[in-house]
Design brief:
alpha+beta; Folate-binding fold; 4-stranded antiparallel sheet; two-stranded antiparallel ribbon
Length: 94
């Protein structure tokens, strides 16, 4: 059983979650070509290493968060707020 540490609910069984996918920067809408959009939407790096992913706690708090997970061992070394929420928090001075 894989334990996923939700930033709000604490460690829970992975069956409560949905792995959304790799976290990556969204291209600029004004300057991106259709080929770059296809690359962004459909190409995954699929590394055998530590990756940052977005997860959703569907059976708990129903929030999205970021997880650093090793794709070979499924070890999780960190879970945190998503980047967008971290930027909001920094902007508000909290």
């Amino acid at each position: 059983m894989i334990q996923v540490p939700c930033p709000w609910c604490g460690p829970r069984n992975s069956m409560e979650f949905r792995a959304v996918g790799e976290s990556k920067s969204r291209p600029d809408v004004a300057t991106t070509t259709p080929e770059q959009w296809r690359q962004y939407l459909y190409t995954k790096s699929n590394l055998a290493d530590w990756v940052t992913e977005t997860w959703y706690h569907r059976a708990g708090c129903r929030r999205y968060f970021a997880v650093e997970r090793h794709t070979v061992t499924n070890d999780i070394r960190e879970s945190r707020l998503p980047a967008a929420q971290l930027r909001q928090k920094e902007g508000s001075g909290s």
